[in-house]
Amino acid sequence: MSTSLWVWIAAALTLCIYSFLYKDNPLYRFAEYLFVGVSVGWSMAVIWYNSVIPKIWTPLAVRHEYWVILPMILGVLVFSLFTKKHSWLVRWPIAFVMGASAGIAVPVNFQSYIFRQLQGSMLTVLNISNAIALIGVVTTLLYFYFSKEQKGVFGKVAGVGIWFIMVAFGASFGYTVMARISLLIGRMQFLLHDWLGIID
Fold first, then answer.
1. Most CB contacts within 10 A, which of 39, 51, 63, 164?
2. In Å, what is the CA distance from 161 to each residue of 6, 135, 140, 168, 175?
3. Prediction pTM value
4. What is the distance between the alpha carbons of residues 200 and 13, in angstroms, rounded to a whole number?
């Protein structure tokens, strides 16, 4: 059994979180509020030392780069949301962020999610894996083509697309479950090995 105070604290908080499996209780709420509070405090410290100091204070006070005042004003305008009289000012920083983000994200997403997918779908069908992928892409797209009633041959082809969609959903769900189980295994290993020392 561990003699470290921090291991005991971590184990106690882990058990408090898992107590929610029985029902909602004060121990779970304490651990939840503590986690949220520590996360917010840590995030504020990270923002202060990684953003405010190097990107605002140092350019203004050390390098005298006064153009930094403009984005700083936009950042301050976000807090106008908390005043009813001046809340309309928050539209300016939101508009700037949305416009800049859209300008950056649209070409990147087209390149990653459309052009790359098209390129991957246009591979040679001599390989059985590529042929299956091409059939899956075509039949899935036909399933979402709602301008034509899905009857006859078209309906059967679209039905094949449903199977590909279900396989994709099943694989995605299975991957999610495995990821959560790996987190559970990590916590159980911590409790049984690091805390209690039952397993090696």
1. 164
2. 53, 8, 4, 11, 21
3. 0.66
4. 22
